[in-house]
Design a protein that fits this description.
Layout: E1 2-7, E2 11-18, E3 21-29, H1 35-43, E4 51-56, H2 60-74, E5 79-80, E6 86-87, E7 90-91, H3 102-114, E8 119-124, E9 127-133, E10 139-146, H4 148-159, H5 178-205, E11 210-214, H6 218-221, E12 230-231, H7 235-248
Parallel strand pairs: 1-4, 4-5, 8-11, 11-12
Antiparallel strand pairs: 1-2, 2-3, 6-7, 8-9, 9-10
Length: 252
Amino acid sequence: MSWVVDVGNSSINWSETRGKQLVQPESFNWHELGMAESLDQAWGASGAPERITCACVAGKDIEAEMAQWCRDVWQMEPEFIQAQQHGYGVSNAYLDAERLGADRWAALVAVRSLSDRPVCIVDCGTAITIDVMESGGKHLGGLILPGIGTMRSALLDRIGITLEESEGGNSTLFARNTTDGVNGGVLYAIIATLDRVYNDVDTEMGTNIDRIITGGDAATLLPLLKGECKYMPDLVLQGLTIMSEFRQGGNE
């Protein structure tokens, strides 16, 4: 039994795998309780998998804490992947290859395995990352911007306002309270950015490229975007599965 695990800045997405297939992907928030207690609750009653392949963007301390939990509870060592300069049919555009987030690398690997068309991948989490890849697997680079919650928190912290939980809760153009004004403004800012990026990428590439969106906030943003965009919620886990299978076969 093998697992693949995507450790984000606030949540963990994971799944058991059978071959290259994901088996009922699940997720939980680790940030509120901390890593060790969250793993106790989510995985403490589970038997140890034979192998865990992870992408972690939450920092080395969190990576070490998760690894220690696996050693203490399961007596096994998880494998944390890093981006490569070349691998799995993808050429990394970053000058320092390992500086590209492991989740972004896994998403590129997953998409490359499915299609040879040029593509723009948007991953919507604590941060929103945008990556563009040409046909043939050449990664061109991308952008990073605040996610919905991050942008909202940064604005509120800066202007010193606390939103009332009982107030509003909608995202509307003509907001009539501060909560709706902030929520709507944040969504408009992100949607306008993504629509503009999609348009500029198409212009730069000279063609209408495929658009893929993933991440925890993707379902919120998808209906608001112009043009066709494919929702692939488990994209990072799919990429990790490919890498796990490849490495189990003795390849790198």
